[in-house]
Amino acid sequence: MCSFLSLEAAGNLTGDEALQAEGKGDQLAVGLKDAANDVKEAVGDAVDKVKKKFGT
């Protein structure tokens, strides 16, 4: 994620709006991926609890 911040920072320093946007877009993509992984883990945990409760 540091490289994404570097893209945005470089864009800020140079005034390059495309570079700023690329850095922000990359950060957003990483954030969405992390959120999706969190949901996947939560669903897996819920499935495990149900299986444990019903003994399957």
Automatic annotation (TrEMBL):
Name by which UniProt lists this protein: CsbD family protein
SUPFAM superfamilies membership: Hypothetical protein YjbJ (SSF69047)
